[in-house]
Amino acid sequence: MILHYYERGERKNHTVLFIHGSASDASVWLNELNFIASRGFHCLAFDLRGHGDTQNLIQPSEKVRLDIDTHVHDTIETLKHLNITGPITIVTHSFGGLVAIYLAERYPDLVSRLVLICLPAKLILPIKFFLGALLGKPLYFIQAHLDFFKKTPLRPRYKSSITTDAQVLREIFKHVKSWNSFRKVPRLKQKIFFAAGRFDFVSPAHLIYALHEKTKDSNFELFKWSSHALMEDEPVKFQEWLYFCLSQR
User: Fold this and answer.
1) Does 200 fall in a domain?
2) Position 19 in a domain
3) Most exposed: 21, 72, 199, 242, by fewest CB within 10 Å?
């Protein structure tokens, strides 16, 4: 299917594709799209299947598959629809990194570099238990009282989190709870930039750093005052660092 997308900049410029994480949507990248496009890049941000405005494109009778293969297929179909042939840079947050890793592995001529932000190197046991519990009754309770929670001063990423269908999130969790980046990332041929937040308990910085050390052509940046959303916790530093990543040859 063709995903809903945001686009900034001229298509003749190098394309930077932004992929959000689970329980999120492409609108979390709007500041980065404007900033990077103003520096001479062509920027795209996709709403993955089941997220953001893409979920409105799916007919009620359609069965929604949410494994990584489906997200890869949707991304390729949308790039073809836009006549984007590469090479491109992919910037990701959290779960979006898993989609990008599969894309880079299967389409090495399409992807020239990866910027992997808060990538789950692997889900440690306490986080598996926490997410499994959160995706049960607590999320159902929140979604049953959305009108109240939407009025609270939540950050944009958290507002998109509570409006993403609980069944969508559980389906994704089923496919990623055994994920281990150490099996795939060190074998990739692309240049890779890693970023981690010091207070991120979902994607611990020490695991991302260990992955960086095992990945030959890679860089690592620690955001000392961030948790799992670097772009919101340290927006100025994040945009400067992102431009640095895109400017490297």
Assistant:
1) yes
2) yes
3) 199
Query: For the chain, how many structural domains are there in total?
Result: 1
State residue 114's pLDDT score.
98
Strand order in the sheet with 191-197: 5-8, 42-46, 15-19, 88-93, 111-117, 191-197, 218-223
Domain that holds residue 23: 5-123+179-247
Distances (CA, A) of 130 to 22, 106, 199: 15, 32, 16
Q: What sign does the dihedral 161-165-170-175 (CA atoms) show? A: negative
**Between residues 133 and 104, the one the model is more confident about:** 104
* Residue 56 domain flag: yes
Tens-digit pLDDT profile for residues 14-55: 999 999 988 889 999 999 999 999 999 999 999 998 888 887
Looking at 44-58, 128-142, 205-219, 235-249, which range is the least confident one? 128-142
The answer to whether residue 24 sits within a structural domain is yes
Whole-number pLDDT of residue 172: 74
pLDDT of residue 179: 84
* Single pTM value for the model: 0.87
Contacts of 163-171 with C-beta under 8 Å, sequence gap 24+, read: 164/22, 164/23, 164/24, 164/25, 164/50, 164/51, 165/50, 165/55, 166/135, 166/139, 166/140, 168/50, 168/51, 168/55, 168/64, 168/66, 169/22, 169/23, 169/135, 169/139, 170/135, 171/50, 171/64, 171/66
The identity of residue 172, as a single letter, is I
CA proximity to 92, closest of 175, 177, 137, 28 = 28
